[in-house]
Amino acid sequence: MTGLKLDESRVAVVTGGASGIGAAIVDELLARGVEVAVLDVDEAALRDLVDRVEAAGRRVRVYPCDVADWMAVEAAAADILADLGRVDVLCANAGVAGHRTPLWRQDPAEMERVLRVNVLGVTNAIRAFVPQMVERRAGHVAVTGSYLAFVTRSGGGNAAYASTKHADLAICEVLAEEFAHLDIPVGVSMVAPGPVATPLQATATTPADHADALPPAKKILDFVKASDVAAATILAIEEGRSSVLVDAATTEYVRLRLTARLESLTSA
């Protein structure tokens, strides 16, 4: 898979780009002169992003949108393509975590929301923006995943989130296989950080009425910076990498867990 140089000739879409990792990706793209369109459900955060970017002498286009809603994504994509003409890079970054609680005590509405945003949000964005990449035979899709795409976290409590990241990895691998089979030169990357200090982490706490259900989460990995994830995303796009684990500690943790899983495999 060949890389895609990011410069002033490129147009990128970032979902969930108003805060956290998404906003850091926006900053990295703007620093390279890329024209950026941001989709986010949080309109106040979008206004803050515009103010911050304009104060730095740059420009960003924003489109309020719930990525879990296909019709909203389709409409936003139509507006973006009308405004900018094309999209070279899709950064499917939008995601939510949900509270940490045992699966059998998960709130059904919250679990559905996590599944819809983290999985349908990715596939909706791909369906909306990839067809014109296929038609032009150029582009790149970068999905913000997690180390939990490869393993699960000791202690549990996040079945919905972990399952969505496993699903996102499968989506990336299947999409890459489809491009390869059809000889379509569009790249696909998953960027898989360890825990990141963003507003998303605030929602991953144990609710007070479930505090007796699980022991406190043990510290396994140090937090990585959103800016480090953004830098890894740029690296994945420009170097055409299929997957990138952001830091050495996370990489080693995943390697050990996967090795243990392989060693436990048995046949009937």
Automatic annotation (TrEMBL):
UniProt keyword list: Oxidoreductase
Entry superkingdom: Bacteria
Keyword Oxidoreductase appears in the UniProt entry: yes
Domain Ketoreductase: 10-199
Coiled-coil regions, chain positions: none
Alphabetized Gene3D superfamilies for the sequence: NAD(P)-binding Rossmann-like Domain
Family, as annotated: Belongs to the short-chain dehydrogenases/reductases (SDR) family.
Entry protein name: SDR family NAD(P)-dependent oxidoreductase
Species of origin: Streptomyces luomodiensis
